[in-house]
Design brief:
alpha+beta, 7-stranded mixed sheet, 6-stranded antiparallel sheet, 13% helix
């Protein structure tokens, strides 16, 4: 009989075994074939679907001529009461396939967008010639919703309705015959708890020609003109300005001549005493008066301080000698007086 033996994980060395261990192995041809690479396909990234944007119109009675053109994406956030007596918010979008109905007039136009049978959004536009300067505004906005699943999960009253009316204050949108565009998010508050956010909003409710939008008036949110960046300039601190008032030196004072027999002495001419002077410092922008210390003694004052005592001593010695001479003091005093 034919017998097949299958060997695997085989490692064999029948000769020249050293240290009771295998030598460097030689692999068989089957082990040398590289295993085929495993290709792993990465999962595709999940993308969040873009919010729906609908294109709607209202036509004149019995014609195909549009009198209102509207492009709109809207997200609602509506407060409602749950079975647990708590207040929750139902958040959902306006479907792009909502049904549009409405009316057109010379001074007012309205469009109603109905979806999910019992839910609707109504927008009314107006142009009051005396108030809007031939431009149109959103006059009023109201929403009507049935509080039942799936839009209102766990609602306490599944047969109830939510009706909210509001008067948005967006100001004048565009001149008659033009369209208004605002791609940015605009939040319109319905009440303290509910709101609707418009995005990719474009509308022309008056004077539509050839079923196409007219010239666009863009909202301020879409205007991307950067504001000028002002770099503050370095502020220079004004330097203090000092104005010195002219000072008048006091008149020189000369002591009267002193005369004695045989000796005449005159006081020096520069014997003056400097009076302290003050100067006014005016600092811009704040006026400040700064007192200036009086100057130190001048050279004439120092000379007078030295010479006056010396003159007094000389006069005293001369008087003494004169007195001795009158009394017959002798040649010694006369010689001493002559030397002086």
């Amino acid at each position: 009989q034919n017998v097949d033996i299958l060997l695997n994980d085989l490692q064999l060395q029948p000769f020249e075994v050293k240290h009771n261990d295998f030598s460097t192995p030689m692999e068989c041809a089957m082990d040398s074939t590289p295993a085929p690479p495993v290709h792993t396909t990465p999962p595709l990234p999940t993308t969040t679907p873009a919010p729906p944007v609908g294109h709607f119109n209202v036509t004149k009675n019995g014609t195909t001529d549009a009198c209102i053109l509207l492009q709109l994406g809207a997200q609602f956030s509506i407060a409602y009461e749950t079975e647990m007596n708590t207040t929750e918010h139902a958040v959902f979008y306006l479907p792009a396939d909502a049904t549009a109905t409405g009316f057109c007039a010379s001074d007012a136009a309205g469009i109603t967008l109905t979806f999910s049978e019992d839910n609707s959004l109504y927008i009314e536009f107006a142009n009051f010639a005396n108030f809007t300067n031939d431009e149109f505004v959103i006059y009023e906005l109201w929403v009507l919703f049935a509080t039942k699943p799936p839009l209102f999960p766990d609602a306490k009253d599944t047969n109830g309705t939510v009706y909210v009316r509001a008067f948005p204050e967006l100001g004048n949108l565009a001149p008659l015959g033009d369209s208004y565009r605002c791609n940015s998010d605009q939040t319109l508050n319905l009440n303290n708890l509910s709101n609707v956010v418009f995005f990719d909003f474009k509308v022309q409710p008056f004077q539509v020609t050839n079923n196409t939008f007219g010239k666009e008036s863009v909202c301020d949110l879409d205007k991307t003109t950067p504001q000028p960046i002002t770099t503050p300039q370095a502020t220079t601190t004004p330097q203090a300005t000092t104005t010195l008032e002219p000072t008048t030196a006091p008149p020189e004072t000369t002591p009267a001549n002193s005369t004695s027999t045989g000796f005449t002495t005159t006081a020096p001419d520069n014997a003056t005493t400097a009076a302290p002077t003050t100067s006014t410092m005016t600092t811009t922008p704040v006026s400040t008066t700064k007192s200036v210390s009086p100057p130190g003694p001048s050279g004439g004052v120092i000379a007078a301080a030295v010479l006056v005592p010396l003159i007094v001593i000389v006069l005293a010695v001369a008087g003494f000698l004169y007195y001795r001479k009158r009394r017959g003091g002798g040649d010694r005093y006369q010689r001493f007086g002559g030397a002086l």
